[in-house]
């Protein structure tokens, strides 16, 4: 079957039949008809819950190994020292989001006061600045070519600004409005080229847009509440992405069909950040429940939890080091915790920011990572 | 005074989670068996009961959570910032001092989680009390707030003043120690709930979240989703699932191990990490189309086909190899399909035509060898072109290259020569005068470089910023 769910109420008649080799198969037939009086919301919810429990029971019967058990034989990591090497000052208010340019040294960052700044983080020089017409610019992204940036927030839109080097030109003049949501924009990312943007929103959906025309190419429905983050897969076929939301779910989507192909619900609170493991076979999530978790896409389950009793505040942003051995998490208690992905232990805790860490990304060549904070600064650590 | 929970939005809901956890820590700290040892603390001439020193707090946290001084100081500091512990000396400064400064636990009545939002009336009474007790005790922002409230709730001002006087009178009848404690508690509460402008605000939470959506639609989709998942759970051997699980987990270890040397944060990078040494040589020798690549870079091409294709230089080398084997059209076709998939919607029809003419039509200049079934499907699909119409064919060619050409390339002389020519930079010795900072050179912005190439009529778009001469430094 095909099609998005949108606002059309549809009831599914699912006929489950056994095929010759005793495997269950499903053939759904969609019937758009009057909703049966006994198919109340609570009935549907009860049915959904029963199936969910059944699925978990089936899974529990299968013996699964924990990552840290197998990783016992792996060498531990030695002393770990990372320091702030650059501090980028210039935002007048909370920094909410940041992204690296493919040239490995430039950064775009956005803040609560509507300012979007492009920096050469190496020299700490500001190269461009745009003032958005809205406050709380919660999402920003650098185009793969390095020639444009995308950003958005409480304006419910995602706009693309081509970066002009003419000092006299006002960047806002060439602004292009691409995405339109019905609630705030929480995250955005260019796909493999400057021509397409993927967005996630407080309206519970993700969407893929054509930059040139502003046309909606695909929408993704399935989250029950605000979608807070997304990440594109580095896989060979490059057709999937993950999203995390306030419904505690992390979903894997097929970009072409708009279908949710996998879903994980083990967090106890909002998922603020999702990031693929470098091989594309797994992903990490950071949540308000103060844990980060690793999910294996082929085994279809959670394989590790990164938490500590002394960590009380939520993780707002996570990213892997180049080899995937380290997971960096920026937290709402102003710290950055560094986790050994394989062993599940914390390698280090980094202090420095004076308010919550809201954004964290490792640079494209893995030489450093950058953290953005509500203390108005960004720091590059190496 | 109980505050209704209905007024709380999504962000407050998230904060409740944290506050509850902090409260659990606080309760554990006050546990008669495993908690802190509280005793009387001397504050000038008064003895305050049930107090502890900053040092006590630090020690307890270090012991309980097995953390360092720095982390304990940080965690303790948060407990003070959020109003669960307050200082007796210098009460306006909500920080944790790791010495013998006295602190007390805030009474649950005043806990941040239970009394939000603070009522205007209560605040007015508090400020009035302070004002009456000692002239000039209100600081600037408190004076401003006081005046604002006076205007806003002027109609009940008599009540406010009356309450304030009554509370002052009642407190005079208490023992001095109790009076001090009650005053400190109340002051701490208001410092957290009505902070000085510019100071940390516990209730500064960001935009509202958690707009719960139409449940029916979501439930329908999750119902279907669960049924599909159940049908895919292997109901044959348990052992095959275990093996899958084990192999998945082992693959992470393998990947981490393979990339260990390539991870600058884990293994450093040669000659040095630019962020640490201020020397950009590492970037210069790794530019997209550099003359002689580094050894690590060439080695990485052997890790996976994707690694080879993702590197401009690697891809160019591979193209050279394919052309020697007269199969260069495969890579060209793949690139054209990528361009179609990720390009502008408006150019789709044009690009599909081009691809057909160049690669698929009978007698095409660069005809690609796809199996007949896929070819049939693709030609059928071309009649109604869309951006994914070449997906099947592209996949077929991709896997052909991956399974056949790629392994042979890795064994070829072309690759082996590349590997032997590749440079291994010398590690930079730490400079003799480490405090002398190098000058940090800027680099041309990709936007500028691209503007130049655009002027030359070249298109920009898919893939990393490709430059003709490499980035200068």
Automatic annotation (TrEMBL), chain A:
InterPro entries: G-protein_beta_1-5, WD40/YVTN_repeat-like_dom_sf, WD40_G-protein_beta-like, WD40_PAC1, WD40_repeat_CS, WD40_repeat_dom_sf, WD40_rpt. Keywords: Repeat, Transducer, WD repeat. GO terms for biological process: signal transduction. WD repeats lie at residues 88-129, 178-219, 220-263, 264-305, 317-349, 350-382. May interact with RGS9; this interaction stabilizes both proteins and increases RGS9 GTPase-activating protein (GAP) activity, hence accelerating the deactivation of D(2) dopamine receptor-mediated signaling. PANTHER family: GUANINE NUCLEOTIDE-BINDING PROTEIN BETA G PROTEIN BETA. This is Guanine nucleotide binding protein (G protein), beta 5a. The lineage of its organism: Eukaryota, Metazoa, Chordata, Craniata, Vertebrata.
TrEMBL record, chain B:
GO terms for biological process: G protein-coupled receptor signaling pathway; intracellular signal transduction; negative regulation of signal transduction; regulation of G protein-coupled receptor signaling pathway. Keywords: Signal transduction inhibitor. GO terms for cellular component: cytoplasm; neuron projection; plasma membrane. Residues 32-107 form the DEP domain. The keyword Cell membrane does not apply. Residues 442-454 have a biased composition (Polar residues). Residues 304-419 form the RGS domain. Pfam families: DEP, RGS, RGS_DHEX. CDD domains: DEP_RGS7-like. SUPFAM superfamilies: Regulator of G-protein signaling, RGS, Transducin (heterotrimeric G protein), gamma chain, Winged helix' DNA-binding domain. Residues 438-473 are annotated as: Disordered. GO terms for molecular function: GTPase activator activity. This is Regulator of G protein signaling 11. It comes from Esox lucius.
């Amino acid at each position: 079957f095909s099609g998005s769910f949108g606002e059309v109420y549809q009831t599914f008649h699912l006929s489950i039949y056994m095929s010759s080799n005793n495997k269950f198969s499903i053939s759904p037939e969609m019937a758009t008809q009057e909703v049966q009086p006994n198919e109340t919301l609570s009935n549907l919810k009860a049915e959904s819950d029963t199936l969910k429990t059944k699925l978990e029971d089936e899974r529990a019967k299968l013996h699964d190994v924990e990552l840290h058990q197998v990783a016992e034989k792996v060498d531990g990591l030695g002393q770990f020292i990372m320091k702030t090497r650059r501090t980028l000052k210039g935002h007048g208010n909370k920094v909410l989001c940041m992204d690296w340019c493919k040239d490995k040294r430039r950064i775009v960052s956005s803040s609560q006061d509507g300012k979007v700044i492009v920096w050469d983080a190496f020299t700490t020089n500001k190269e461009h600045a745009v003032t958005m017409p809205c406050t709380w610019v919660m999402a920003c992204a650098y185009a793969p070519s390095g020639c444009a940036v995308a950003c958005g927030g409480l304006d419910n839109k995602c706009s693309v600004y081509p970066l002009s080097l003419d000092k006299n030109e006002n960047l806002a003049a060439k602004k292009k409005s691409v995405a339109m949501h019905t609630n705030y924009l929480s995250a955005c990312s260019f796909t493999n080229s400057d021509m397409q943007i993927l967005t996630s929103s407080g309206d519970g959906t993700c969407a893929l847009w054509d930059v040139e025309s502003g046309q909606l190419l695909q929408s993704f429905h399935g989250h029950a509440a605000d979608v807070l983050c997304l990440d594109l897969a580095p896989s060979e076929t490059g057709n999937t992405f993950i999203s995390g939301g306030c419904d505690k779910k992390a979903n894997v989507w097929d970009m072409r069909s708009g279908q949710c192909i996998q879903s994980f619900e083990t967090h106890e609170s909002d998922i603020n950040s999702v990031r693929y493991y470098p091989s594309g076979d797994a992903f990490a999530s950071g949540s308000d429940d103060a844990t980060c978790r690793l999910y294996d896409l082929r085994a279809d389950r959670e394989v590790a939890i990164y938490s500590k009793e002394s960590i009380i505040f939520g993780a707002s942003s996570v990213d892997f080091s180049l080899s995937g051995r380290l997971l960096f998490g920026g937290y709402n208690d102003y710290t950055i915790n560094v986790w050994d992905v394989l062993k599940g232990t914390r390698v280090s805790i980094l202090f420095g920011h004076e308010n919550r860490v809201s954004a964290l990304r490792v640079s494209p060549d893995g030489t450093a990572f950058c953290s953005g904070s509500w203390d108005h600064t960004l720091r590059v650590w190496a | 005074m109980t505050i209704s929970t209905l007024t709380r939005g999504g962000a407050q809901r998230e904060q409740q989670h944290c506050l509850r956890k902090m409260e659990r820590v606080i309760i554990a700290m006050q546990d008669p068996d495993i908690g802190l040892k509280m005793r009387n603390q001397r504050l000038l001439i008064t003895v305050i009961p049930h107090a502890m020193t900053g040092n006590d707090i630090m020690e307890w946290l270090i012991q309980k959570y097995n953390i360092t001084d720095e982390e304990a100081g940080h965690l303790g500091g948060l407990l003070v910032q959020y109003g669960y512990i307050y200082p007796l000396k210098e009460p306006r400064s909500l920080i944790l001092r790791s010495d013998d400064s006295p602190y007390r636990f805030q009474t649950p009545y005043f806990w941040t989680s239970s009394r939000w939002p603070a009522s205007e009336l209560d605040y007015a009474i508090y400020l009035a009390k302070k004002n009456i007790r000692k002239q000039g005790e209100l600081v600037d922002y408190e004076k401003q707030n006081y005046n604002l409230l006076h205007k806003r709730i002027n109609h009940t001002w008599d009540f406010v003043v009356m309450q304030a006087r009554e509370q002052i009178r009642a407190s005079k009848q208490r023992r001095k120690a109790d009076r001090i404690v009650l005053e400190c508690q109340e002051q701490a509460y208001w410092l957290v709930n009505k902070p000085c402008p510019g100071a940390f605000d516990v209730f500064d939470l960001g935009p509202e979240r958690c707009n719960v959506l139409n449940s029916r639609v979501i439930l329908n989709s999750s119902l279907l989703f669960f049924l599909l998942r159940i049908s895919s759970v292997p109901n044959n051997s348990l052992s095959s699932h275990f093996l899958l699980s084990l192999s998945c987990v082992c693959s992470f270890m393998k990947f981490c191990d393979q990339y260990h040397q390539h991870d600058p944060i884990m293994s450093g990078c040669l000659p040095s990490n630019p962020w640490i040494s201020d020397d950009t040589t590492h970037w210069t020798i790794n530019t997209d189309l550099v003359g002689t690549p580094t050894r690590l870079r060439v080695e990485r091409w052997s890790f996976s086909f994707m690694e080879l294709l993702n590197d401009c230089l690697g891809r160019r080398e591979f193209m050279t190899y394919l052309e020697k084997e007269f199969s260069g059209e495969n890579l060209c076709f793949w690139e054209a399909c990528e361009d179609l998939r990720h390009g502008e919607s408006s150019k789709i029809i044009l690009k599909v035509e081009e691809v057909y003419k160049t690669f698929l039509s009978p007698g095409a200049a660069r005809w690609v060898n796809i199996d007949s079934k896929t070819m049939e499907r693709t030609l059928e699909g071309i009649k109604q072109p869309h951006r994914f119409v070449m997906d099947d064919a592209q996949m077929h060619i991709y896997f052909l290259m991956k399974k056949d050409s790629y392994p042979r390339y890795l064994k070829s002389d072309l690759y082996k020569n590349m590997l032997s020519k590749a440079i291994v930079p010398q590690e930079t010795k730490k400079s003799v005068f480490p405090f002398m900072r190098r000058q940090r050179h800027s680099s041309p912005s990709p936007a500028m470089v691209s503007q130049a190439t655009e002027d030359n009529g070249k298109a920009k778009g898919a893939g990393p910023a490709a430059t003709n001469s490499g980035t200068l430094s």
